[in-house]
Amino acid sequence: MNDSTSPILIIGMHRSGTSLLARLLESAGVFLGAHLDRHHESRLHSRINKRILSASACNWANPAGIDLCLLDVDGKDRSLRFVDACHQTFSARADCRAQREHGRWGFKDPKTTLTLSVWLARYPSAHVVHIHRHGLDVALSLRQRAMSRRSPEYINDHPARLLRQGARMGRDLFDGRCQNLTANLCLWDQYLSLASQYRQQCSHAGWHEVNYQSMLASPETTLSPIFKALELPPPDQETLSAINSDRALAWTGSNDPVFKHWLADEATEISARLTAHGYQL
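Now predict its structure.
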């Protein structure tokens, strides 16, 4: 039986389908937060994760060393005290009231992949749902998003958002990192490597893996066993019918000349990183 006080943590590398998975879990009755952003992330838990990363001199696009920082007993204790303090705020109390009404609860934030040791220390019986996607799809998607945010049209349409995000997201919108395909693939590698470490350390049967390509190709077959393990009703058929299977392995149809040249020039290194996580070039 599931303990309704233990959350369902939706993790995975950015641009890997965490938002879609969150919508599917929410359609099955999982409460994901009283205040969600446009990516279906709990604003409260996203801010907590940002602060934990910031205290370790990291951010979502530069997580190097976060695992060592959180292995430190004092560092983890400070993070746990911060989590507890945040859960006493007004917005957290609002989340808790709604959580009691819904029963099952959780939150989605890719950054939880980096801070998972803190959350598992606070909620040892939590269920973790980790979704992973082909590294080339992720690297290309990050580049496309970064390039679109530098277009004159985007800058003209969203000047206030750019200023807010530039101040709050560790300047990653302006440092050009996500335009670099090699950096993006390395970041994907870091997220999947950390998730693999946490999976090996998980002391209960609460870890669930979701392959993005399999979910798009056969959503009901892929997700039904996980929803059953979570003691949730089957995935919502209306939400399942809206899944676009064409997004699987989107990199194979890319006409981006920079991407094509990168594949040709760095094939050996790219293949090694992909193979380490069960993917092929």
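Residues 8-276 form a domain with the Rossmann fold fold (CATH 3.40.50).
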